[in-house]
Each structure stands twice: as C-alpha cells, then as structure tokens.
Amino acid sequence: MTTALHAVPSTLDPRMPDSELARRVGEGEEAALRLLMRRHNQTLFRTARAILREDSEAEDAVQEAYIKAIRGIASFRSDAKLSTWLVRITVNEALAKLRRNRRTAAVIPLAGDLPGGESMTDMTDDHTPTPEEHALRGEARRVIESRIDALPDVFRTVFVLRAVEEMSVEETAAVLDIPEATVRTRFFRARGLLRESISRELDMGLADAFHFAGERCERITEAVLARLRLLPPA
Fold first, then answer.
1. Is 121 domain-assigned?
2. Which 3-state string (H, E, C) describes the chain?
3. Binning pLDDT at 50, 70 and 90, where does residue 109 land?
C-alpha cells in the first residue's frame, strides 16, 4: 500500500475487475479494501483451515496473509488472477504458522509426486433432497468436515481447493506450486478415501462444507482494517 488507509465515500461496483480493485486498494481506499476482503474471505479461510484444521488458527493466518498482500499489492500483476495471488500468500502463511506450531513434526511436503492413484466414477448426484433430507444437511456438513479434516495433509489441501472452492487443476497447481498431475492424483485419492467413510447420500452437503458465517467474515475484515490503521504509510 503506497498511502495510509483512508475512507473515501464512494459506491463500488461489486463486479469491479481485479486490476482496478487492486489499484484502488494500493491507493489506500478503505471501501475497496473492504470489497476485496469480502470477495475473498471465504476462499482464503477455507484454504487456511485445510492446512491448519482449526478455525481460530485459520482466521489468524488469513489476517496475516491480508496484511502481507495489502502491503505488497503493488507487486500484483494486472494480467494475473487476484484470487490465485491471494490464495498463494495464504498458503505460505498457513504453512509458516503450521511450522511454528509443530515443534517436532515435519513440514508438509506440498511439492513432488506421490505414488499410486485411484480412478473413480463421478460423485455428482442429481437427486433433489426431500424435506427430511434437507433437515439433515447441517449434520451431514459436520460429518463431511470431520472426514475432510481426517484426510492426510497432502490430500486435504488439494481436495478443499478443488472440490470445495472449485478451483481448476491449473489454478490449484499454481497456488501450491506442484505439477498438475500431482493435483489430479491427490484429488482422486482424497475422493477415494472419503468414499470409504461417507455414503453417497451425504454428498449433497459438500457445497456447504466449512460454511463461512457472516460474523466471521466481518470479524476478519474489521480486524485487518484495525491493524492497517495503526501502520505508518509505506
């Protein structure tokens, strides 16, 4: 950020292109910063949580990632995708936090291929849920979240980015700095592991996994803004 954060009364188009949004954030426009965070909070939280497996730790990592991203917004290339750039910063911050938290554990190996693989049929289900099934979605979501948390580290992050956030293979590979073939292998293996413990009827809850409540979104947004107001101009 080239200037101190300032509030400028303005009405922002929520469909504003990444390049324009990044430029206005770099100029210190608070409204643009709020739009940026509300646009990307859920994706970044899900990404951090996939690595850290703990809500408060993930929130902390997202806040740190935002601070670093905002202070380095000038390095964002207008021809790049802003979400990919932000997710990559969040991945790095979450991994750094994980290394600090794990005093004796090995660092998660995000690079390199894993042996083996697993082909499988499509998991999509066109079934329209009945009222009774709809009532069970909350419990289904909790089951799915716990099973995703139980996935091995190298599979879990890829699975969340691909299945929950619906990133493409290319985007996931770029964010995690691994080959596209590795993304495919880990994703299919993760889905295979989940199929062993979750019935097809629970698949309907997948879209709601790690639901990002409005309260958490606002908490992260306000916390980042509060910290930025205390920083001197770069």
1. no
2. CCCCCECCCCCCCCCCCHHHHHHHHHCCEHHHHHHHHHHHHHHHHHHHHHHHCCHHHHHHHHHHHHHHHHHCHHHCCCCCCHHHHHHHHHHHHHHHHHHHHCCCCCCCCCCCCCCCCCCCCCCCCCCCCCHHHHHCHHHHHHHHHHHHHCCCHHHHHHHHHHHHCCCCHHHHHHHHCCCHHHHHHHHHHHHHHHHHHCCHHHHHHHHHCCCCCHHHHHHHHHHHHHHHHCCCCC
3. very low
Determine the length of the chain: 234
Number of domains in the chain: 2
Higher pLDDT pick, 103 / 115 = 103
Domain assignment present for residue 125? The answer is no
CA-nearest of 52, 45, 110 to 83 is 45
Q: Is residue 168 part of a domain?
A: yes
Q: How large is the average pLDDT for residues 131-152?
A: 74
Q: What angle do CA 62, 98, 166 make, to 5 degrees?
A: 50
pLDDT attached to residue 106: 42
Same domain, 179 and 217: no
Domain with 191 in it: 131-208
The CATH number of residue 78's host domain is: 1.10.1740.10
81 and 95 co-located in one domain: yes
